[in-house]
Amino acid sequence: MWVQIPLLVLKFKIEQIKIEQIRMKDIEKISDSEYKRRVDSMTDLELAKHFLSPYPGDTLKEHIDYIEMTQEELAEKLDISNQKLEELIQGKTPFTREISDALEELLDIPASFFLNLEKTYQKDLLKIEELERLEAERLEYSKRAITRVYKAIIPKP
What we know:
The chain is mainly α and 157 residues long. It has one domain: 434 Repressor (Amino-terminal Domain) (Orthogonal Bundle). It is built from 8 helices and no strands. It has helices at residues 4-28, 32-40, 44-50, 56-66, 71-78, 82-89, 97-107, 111-153. The chain is elongated.
């Protein structure tokens, strides 16, 4: 079963991309070549945000929906509060070894699966933060350069 789950995540991500393509094309009535041009023109930061790995809570939510278990039932079986489970599902709280082990025992999904999803998600978030920092630095540098040029060209009154 654990081999099928990563494939499900991959299929889910591919479906997300296809849905995004269809949504963009339907809303804006654009062609495949126009979509490709837009994606090709995205910055590294925009691409990183656009293709951010799903957080483990999203995958957990899909799985419990698939097996027709409510969040309340899962929280009770995990012996955690509904609020704590909701924070996990929304990505506000990271998956720990303890929670992942409990999920493995309860849902028969290897703990390593959720821990690897969490690791990938956190790594992607760090990459986005770094790209945002670099973009802010680039903008600040450009602003200072433009100010210097402006001061050199325009005489003081």
